[in-house]
Design a protein that fits this description.
Elements: E1 5-15, E2 21-32, E3 36-40, H1 47-55, E4 63-65, E5 68-71, E6 74-75, H2 81-87, E7 92-95, H3 109-118, H4 125-138, H5 144-148, H6 157-169, E8 175-179, H7 187-204, E9 207-212, H8 215-221, E10 224-229, E11 232-238, H9 248-255
Parallel strand pairs: 3-9, 3-10, 7-8, 8-9
Antiparallel strand pairs: 1-2, 1-4, 1-5, 5-6, 10-11
Helix pairs in contact: 3-4, 3-6, 4-6, 6-7
């Protein structure tokens, strides 16, 4: 399987108060085909920064370097800003974890989906509306014509996340980066959103990077898993084999998962070895 995305020795640094660079991502490497790759780790481990670097959405003060950062043969580090903008949305989409911070509060959700489509394709208003309604239906929104005219504050969190997925998929990208897309949702809605992503990725033959802190969710949804600690990949493993992971950090994360019907006292505490970050 040919790689859709290749990342080798990705490093992202930010200046501290003294102006000295501090690395948040330190040597992350992986490749992605048309498959579902999970990236897991604690908050601050570098998961989201890795996804944002692929899209070119790191803050201006960030220092991003890599031996290779290539998407479908395009060197992302050498690509001109206009070329990076053309890729975003059209060929690479990103769903963020909380739609209320991503959707424009003064535009209807339908207008925002139409705007995303017309930014990348030369289509008229009527065709754009029809495709937006079809996309809302594809993410299992009932009465899409009604939802099309609603503002973001008029939809629930689960519906808002479906709107975001529709907006990111309307231009039919080759790669979707989902940054904790279900963390703000209840368990029932989580499963519905994952089912939608699973079906759409399968139907469209896309690559998916699923960023999460939930190992149980990732193990049931993804094909492969990268475990990141302190900006480094400490383990890469098939999702089906996650329960047999060998690295002590991964084992520690698994041990912290609650188990029904099992009495555990004291509760397990995740230990950290400074060597893991070196």
């Amino acid at each position: 399987m040919s790689a859709l995305l290749t990342v080798e020795d990705l490093r992202i640094a930010f200046p501290n108060r003294d102006g000295d660079p501090v690395e948040a991502v330190r040597g992350v490497s992986f490749s992605l085909g048309r498959e579902r790759l999970g990236i897991v780790g604690e908050s601050g481990s570098g998961k989201s920064q890795t996804g944002r670097a692929i899209l070119g959405l790191t803050p201006p003060q960030a220092i991003v370097t890599a031996r290779t950062l290539a998407f479908d043969g395009i060197d992302l580090l050498k690509a001109a800003p206009a070329e990076r903008r053309a890729l975003r949305g059209a060929r690479i989409g990103m769903v963020l974890q909380d739609p209320k911070y991503s959707l424009n509060p003064v535009m209807t959700v339908g207008d925002q989906i139409v705007e995303a489509l017309q930014a990348h394709e030369n289509v008229g208003d009527r065709e754009a509306r029809e495709r937006a309604l079809a996309m809302l239906a594809a993410v299992q929104i009932d009465r899409p014509a009604r939802v099309f005219g609603l503002y973001p504050h008029e939809v629930s969190g689960g519906m808002g996340q479906r709107v975001m997925i529709a907006m990111m998929l309307i231009a039919d990208p080759d790669l979707l980066i989902a940054d904790e897309p279900t963390s703000a949702l209840d368990v029932t809605v989580q499963l519905q959103v994952l089912s939608i992503l699973d079906r759409l990725v399968g139907e469209r033959g896309m690559g998916l990077i699923f960023i999460s802190h939930d190992l149980r969710l990732v193990s049931s949804f993804c094909d492969r898993v990268l475990v990141i600690y302190a900006g480094r990949v400490v383990e890469e493993i098939a999702a089906a084999d996650l329960g047999a992971a060998q690295h002590p950090y991964t084992r520690g994360l698994l041990a912290c998962l609650p188990r029904l019907g099992e009495h555990r006292h004291p509760l397990p505490v995740l230990s950290r070895d400074p060597e893991w970050a070196r």
